[in-house]
Design goal:
Blueprint lengths: L7 E5 L3 H13 L3 E5 L2 H10 L4 E5 L7 H10 L8 E5 L4 H11 L3 E4 L4 H13 L6
Parallel strand pairs: 1-2, 1-3, 3-4, 4-5
Amino acid sequence: MGSETKKHILIVDDEDEIRHMLKLMLESSGYMVSEACNGQECIAMANANPPDAIILDVMMPKMNGGKVARKLKKNEATSLIPIIMLSGLDEKKYMKAALWELGVDFYVVKPADPEDILDKVEQAVKRPKFAD
């Protein structure tokens, strides 16, 4: 019997439908899922109970995904959490460079293929976590 604990994924998106779809997909693949509907909630949740990975939307009210990623990466308690950025923006060259600067680990364009998201989540949770 496997006593392995489920990997915890935090989904952050202001759209209920997207969070719900991602949650169902991840839970059916064996992950434990938490949801946040904005950046401030994400930061509070990540500090209280650091997840194994965060799926983070770029375009959100109050605090966009870039600001959230920057705050998470600057905080010692959350700096090693892999971030998978979801965006409706498909400016690949610009976005990849900008996201790299923010410390984002993976980038997926909406509407995202569920298999692509699952693949990125699996890569993120298996990646060794080292401090610089």
